[in-house]
Amino acid sequence: MTQQISNGVKSIVISTFIAIAIIGGVIVVMIPGDGQSATASVENVSVVDGKQIVEINAKGQYSPKVTSAKAGIPTVLRVETNGTFDCTSQLTVPSIGYRKMLPPTGTTDVELAAQNPGATVRGICAMGMYNFEVKFN
């Protein structure tokens, strides 16, 4: 009887450690891999010749995930790829009906009209796993 209780306790302890390892692994996977939190301020916006340029990197994810931009200015999403062969290479921007396969390496400009304050433009990969958003203030 004591042997059965001991084996039961061992099973519970082992199961608990496995559950903790799985939960810890999920938490690590959910943390953005670029060292930035999903809402961190990133300097990826510039204004050139009266157009706002928002730079987004596509490889394994879109980075940064969230960008703040100025409303009322014509905007260009400048998507850069560098050896990108995953689903982020097929970009969809639903609000403007844009869908295109990006080159494995290069720069693709997506023209946006001036956006109203409070607008958000979202981009998403072919599988719907990765996305980014540009919030206009």
The number of strands is 10
| Mean of pLDDT | 84
Domain module tally: 2
Structural class: alpha+beta
Element order: H for helix, E for strand: HEEEEEEEEEE
First-to-last CA distance: 69 Å
**CATH architecture level-2 label of the largest domain:** Sandwich
Compute the number of helices.
1
CATH topology title of the largest domain:
Immunoglobulin-like
Beta fraction: 35-45%
Give the full name of the CATH homologous superfamily of the largest domain. Answer: Cupredoxins -  blue copper proteins
The gist of it:
The protein is an alpha+beta fold.
Structure description:
- With 137 residues, the protein is an alpha+beta fold.
- The protein folds into two domains: 1-30; 45-136, Immunoglobulin-like (Sandwich), CATH 2.60.40.420.
- Helix content is 21%, strand content 39%.
- It has one helix spanning 2-30; strands at 45-48, 51-58, 62-63, 66-69, 75-82, 90-93, 98-101, 105-112, 120-124, 131-136.
- Strands 1, 2, 3, 5 and 8 form a five-stranded mixed sheet that branches. Strands 4-10-9 form a three-stranded mixed sheet, with no helix packed on it.
- The chain is elongated.
What would the keywords be for this entry?
137 residues, alpha+beta, Immunoglobulin-like, 2 domains, 10 strands
